[in-house]
Write a structure and sequence with these properties.
Strand order of the largest sheet: 1-2-3-6-7-8-9-10
Bound molecules: 1,3-dihydroxyacetonephosphate
Strand content: 5-15%
Structural class: alpha/beta
Largest sheet: 8 strands, parallel, barrel
Number of helices: 13
Order of helices and strands: HHEHHEHHEEEHEHEHEHEHEHH
Distance between the termini: 47 Å
Radius of gyration: 19 Å
Number of strands: 10
């Protein structure tokens, strides 16, 4: 029996279990729509749209108002600002999501900076006051949270200190979330930037997961009541792409070495993979022999890119943007079943 399970009140444990049951059903994934103000400005800039509060509200309501999205998406990660915004009918966006059967969640980390003592490594901020913030987010409808630690790959990174310090942050965050009845998504993102080989990516991801689960255990986090959001094992962006079968083989081998079977769901980030590439890789993973976890998606760019391009900041393009989002969500749902084919594009 896990120590933490004994210290949770029955109500908290029931809340966590109900959220996992609503999010993990073998058929649906997560839409990451939690870009920080800086990141959403970059995404909007790429399609010539200014990042005003109204544009952000309009675009994110467009995503959540997509009819039928709840067939393929079981959770949405929101940015703090979105929790208080309303759609065109005056309904709060977390409620719009919930009415589609999509569980609303919230990004709670406060971004990253250099990790002192480990040149080239990074660390994420935001633990101070986290418990109070979570209570407030819960009142606004959030039932799960997300925290991202970032690991660049170089010949010297991540350093030993980078591995241990980042794992400690993720575990402290996850423990606070579970204590508040909020399901933690634990996101250790190993960056694709660079010219490293797929073998080097596998080595780093394995070291990261090993350290993260060691820390989660030390902090008494209940593995059955969390979701892991890792990178796939791929070669660096400056190398030739690996075929989906190879990405799947390496990713599965590393996951089996580093991630306990008690974790209910692994929802990959897309991390710079193109939309079709991310779907093909997820499909290949689900075509391998049976995994102990659900293998799903929690894509930001790989779900939203075609929708953003279709939208271009014009309200008249909203329908086309929604169709583009629904298509990517449906194809990723098929990839979870191992039934996706390139011809469906
Ligand atoms: P990408 O899928 O665009 O990498 O975004 C996922 C995410 O939530 C990053 O924190």
């Amino acid at each position: 029996m896990n120590r933490r399970r004994e210290v949770f009140s029955v109500g908290i444990s029931d809340d966590l279990q109900a959220t996992i049951a609503d999010m993990v059903d073998g058929r649906r994934g997560i839409l990451a729509a939690d870009e920080s103000s800086g990141t959403i400005a970059k995404r909007f800039d790429a399609v010539g749209v200014e990042s005003t509060e109204e544009h952000r509200r309009f675009y994110r309501s467009l995503l959540l108002d997509t009819e039928g999205l709840g067939q393929y998406v079981s959770g949405v990660i929101l940015f703090e600002e979105t929790l208080g915004q309303k759609n065109g009918d005056g309904r709060l966006l977390p409620h719009v999501a919930a009415e589609q059967g999509i569980v609303p969640g919230i990004k709670v980390d406060k971004g990253k900076g250099p990790l002192a003592g480990a040149p080239g490594d990074l660390i994420t901020f935001g633990l101070d006051g986290l418990e109070a913030r979570l209570q407030g987010y819960r009142e606004q409808g959030a039932r799960f949270a997300k925290w991202r630690e970032v690991y660049p790959i170089s010949p010297h990174n991540p350093a030993r200190l980078g591995l241990t310090a980042n794992a400690e942050m993720l575990a402290r965050y996850a423990a606070v979330c579970q204590g508040c009845g909020v399901v933690p998504i634990v996101e250790p993102e190993v960056l694709m930037d660079g010219d490293h080989s797929i073998e080097r990516s596998a080595e780093v991801n394995e070291a990261v997961w090993h350290e993260v689960f060691h820390a989660l255990h030390r902090h008494g986090v209940v593995l059955e009541l969390m979701i892991l959001k890792p990178s796939m094992v791929t070669p660096g962006k400056d190398c030739a792409k690996a075929p989906p079968e190879q990405v799947a083989e390496y990713t599965m081998r590393s996951l089996r070495r580093g991630v306990p079977a008690a974790v209910p769901s692994i929802n990959f980030l897309s991390g710079g993979q193109g939309p079709e590439e991310a779907t093909a890789n997820l499909n290949a993973l689900n075509q391998l022999w049976h995994a102990p976890w659900q293998l799903s998606f929690s894509y930001g760019r790989a779900l939203q890119e075609p929708a953003l391009k279709a939208w271009q900041g014009e309200s008249g393009n909203a329908g086309a943007a929604q169709a583009a989002l629904l298509k990517r969500a449906r194809l990723n749902h098929l990839a979870m079943l191992g039934e996706y084919q390139e011809s469906m594009e």
